[in-house]
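User: Batch of two.

Assistant: Item 1 of 2:
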Amino acid sequence: MADMIQYSVDEHIAKIVLNRPAANTLDEPAARLLYEAVQDARMSDEVRVIYLTGSGGVFCGGLDLKSVDLSDTDTIVRLHRSLFDPIAKEIYSCAKPVVCAMNGSASGAGLMFALACDLTYAVEQSRLAFTFVERGLIPACGGTYLIPALVGEKKALEIVLRAKTYKASDALAEGLLTGVYATVDELARETYQIAQELAGRSPLVLNLVKKAMRSRTIERFDEQLRLEEELQAVAVAAPSFREGVEKFLKR
């Protein structure tokens, strides 16, 4: 089970790899392992930089909808409150730089984890799917803060309300990504070099930069998580959620 989330530390870089084929979706055990890995990296004195990526051709499809009973709304809400939202908060509020290498497409909570990182790079073939409303949901894991913060409120509303899916190059142009690479090998090589570059800098200075830039936004991010949890509970309890998810799983 531990192989679902691979964790290693080398050259002061904590490498976290999502490894749950085929779409690297997260059931409760996998989400818990991811949460623990990010926590361990944040608290370790040896770690200066966190590097998040996936295995295979997909970065992360978010919550494994096949692992939950769609009629059990309490469990779905509990998973978001106890695991998925805390993962996003750990990533966003971490004092250490967090680099994400999106080795493939991402959606749902997985996409929000990527956007919560400080530097988010993707391979050209990846797709960013903001398909929350198609599943009868609102953006979770801080998405209602992250998306407007990256692209502005007007554009964020269009992205979410129209359930848009972006090619990596288009997502870069919109400001959703830091950079795009042609191949997975190039992505892995170049982004890990970036992580090594950051790990070679003063940890104190990097931490102070993040603290200065996030001094106001961390509190706002946390407030949005609480609001999302309240509103998502309403959305999950509605028939549109089960209808949307069932259509999605039949694709």
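Item 2 of 2:
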Amino acid sequence: MTGSSEAHRLRTFERWQASLSPFALLERFLGSPAGAFLVNAPIFQLKENLKIEPWMRVLDVGCGAGSALRLLDERVQFEHPPVGVDFSSVAIRNARASAQSADRPPEFVRASALALPFRDGTFDLMVSSYLVRHLDDEEMRTFLLEVRRVLAPGGLALLWDCAPTGNPRLDRWNAYVLSRGTGDPRWRSTRALMALGELAGFEYIRPAKLRPFLFPPIPRASVLLGKPPEGWQAP
């Protein structure tokens, strides 16, 4: 079931990428560096808020055109090239093309979020923006288990996406706006994301409280999940 739903989502998404509709053009703009400032403004504060260090190995799952990952790298200047993963060959091709002018571009890998092609304990930080609304609960559990597997001891995972408003009519409108070409979104609150993190075995779970988000005018849910360092014991 999970594999077939992901394959359908990929076909739908890649048709959407080739579309010239106003919604598709807007989404491609929002995936650019200028658009990333609007939809991912908290990226500019992550270095200080999470105490991100240059030695950390970083993974972005669902990286799209890679703009958010490149902005984070510009802020931190990582010693190891950060890695972006997306299931779309179109997205990866665009990410590589847009990063060609960088002195040291990130690495971009086409892969499923449900089967990350990395060894256990490879990364110190994982970020994922606007991916989880496309995953059902079974896929979310698989995804979070994969994230926990590839995180090093002491590593952190930061996820954010649009969230429910509490107004059914407004949620339906937001779903309509955000589902053009990508399927109906699954709205989850921060509390729901935290519960899924607990089911996946994360011992450190906190609301990330990311802000500000400038566009679209929809609330965000964000969660910070941690894999404890060696020898750590829960209080």
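The chain has one domain: 2-226.
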